[in-house]
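> run fold NAD-dependent protein deacetylase
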Amino acid sequence: MNQDLQNIIEESDNIVFFGGAGVSTESGIPDFRSVDGLYSTTYKYPPETIISHSFFVRNTSEFYDFYKNKMIFLDALPNQAHIKLAELEKRGKLKCVITQNIDGLHQEAGSKNVLELHGSVRRNYCMKCGKFYDVYSIVNSKGVPKCQCGGTIKPDVVLYEESLDSEILEKSVEYIEKADVLIVGGTSLVVYPAAGLINYFKGKKLVLINKSSTSLDKRADLVICDNIGKVFQ
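> ok
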C-alpha cells in the first residue's frame, strides 16, 4: 500500500470510504462508461434507455433480457480493495462503505456497514405484494420474473429517472460529515447526486484513488492515480 495512504489510515479510526465502478471493474464487472463497458454494447437501444424506469414499465421483457445478461455477475469475486476495506472495518478504523455499485461484493468480502446508493442486484421485490426474491430467482426465471401472486418482480436497483433512497442519502451525508478521513476510490465523480456527497466532508484528510484525474484532485490531500485493487494490496 502507498506509504502516505498507510500513514493516514494508521492515524485515524474514523474513516469513510466512498466508491464507484472502478472498485468493481477489477473483479471483472464492466464499467458503464469505459471503452469496453456497457455503453459500447450493441443493443437496439442505448443502455441508459434500457435501464430507465419508463423502459422497465413499457418494455419489461427487453429490460430483463439486457439486465440478466449485462448487469448480473454472479461469478465475480471480491478483489483486494473489497477485502482490505472489510479488514479496516473489523479493526474499527473504517466506519462505513458508501458505494455506487450494485453487485454486493463489499458484503461478500465481509463489510457489515455498507450504504448502497444505487441499490443491489441481490435484492428483488414483487411490485404487487412486496415479497422478497433473491438474485437466483431472477437469473433462473424465463422471461419476465413473476411472483406467486402474479405481480412483476423488480430489482431493488435505482434505475434512470428514479430518485435515490432518501434515507440512504441522509445516512451517507451523516457519515461523511462526521468522518476524519474520506477515501474516494474508483469513481470519476461525474454522477450526481452521489458525487455531490463529497462536498459534505469537513474532516482532516481527503484521499482520491482513481485511474484518471477527477474534478476534485486539487482539493484532495492525497491523489493516487492507479487501480484501486493494486493500491490496497
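The chain is about 30% helix and 20% strand.
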